[in-house]
């Protein structure tokens, strides 16, 4: 269905109604582009509904206004704008696109997540390097934090080495 505003759902069709009869019933409202009536695979008869596609959306609106609740072959018709064909798949669960249509966006999202992970790792490395540099400077000036000197033997060794160099 190209444009849902030009395609009408016609429900409540009697089993003897054909695509030709449906076309004839809807042609007074404008140029009909297509008529389709899905078949039941088991019985090869239509399933009680069909679709009529007009060239102009104004014609479709006129047909819907005039044919909704009208009678055809003794049955009351239901006429509404058709919904897009839905197939299973896609990120949205039921989508009007094939499953593989999301492949590019999925791949792009994976690349973005990998890039973000790399940036986070680089940031953490930079922060650690800055903290280490700060510790070295503090140790060089003789300012050693008590917690670091108690917990970190490396800080104690660096402080001792720097003290030895300055003498």
UniProtKB/TrEMBL annotation:
Gene3D superfamilies xref list: 3.30.70.330
Superkingdom, natural source: Eukaryota
SUPFAM superfamilies documented for this protein: RNA-binding domain, RBD
Record domain RRM: where: 6-84
Alphabetically ordered keywords of this record: Coiled coil, RNA-binding
Listed InterPro entries: Nucleotide-bd_a/b_plait_sf, PPIE_RRM, RBD_domain_sf, RRM_dom
Coiled-coil portions: 109-136
Molecular function terms from GO: mRNA binding
Pfam families: RRM_1 (PF00076)
Region (Disordered): 139-167
Name by which UniProt lists this protein: RRM domain-containing protein
Species assigned in the record: Marchantia polymorpha
């Amino acid at each position: 269905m190209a444009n849902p505003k030009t395609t009408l759902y016609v429900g409540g069709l009697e089993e003897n109604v054909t695509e030709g009869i449906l076309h004839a019933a809807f042609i007074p409202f404008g140029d009909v582009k297509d008529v389709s009536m899905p078949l039941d695979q088991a019985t090869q008869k239509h399933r009680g509904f069909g679709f009529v596609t007009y060239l102009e959306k104004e014609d479709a609106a006129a047909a819907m206004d005039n044919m909704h609740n009208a009678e055809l072959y003794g049955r009351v018709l239901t006429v509404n704008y058709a919904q897009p064909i839905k197939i299973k798949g896609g990120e949205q669960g039921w989508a009007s696109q094939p499953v593989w249509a999301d492949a590019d966006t999925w791949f792009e999202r994976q690349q973005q997540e990998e890039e973000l992970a790399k940036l986070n790792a680089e940031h953490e490395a930079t922060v650690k390097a800055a903290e280490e540099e700060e510790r070295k400077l503090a140790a060089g000036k003789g300012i050693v934090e008590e917690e670091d000197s108690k917990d970190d033997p490396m800080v104690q060794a660096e402080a001792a080495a720097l003290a030895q160099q300055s003498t």
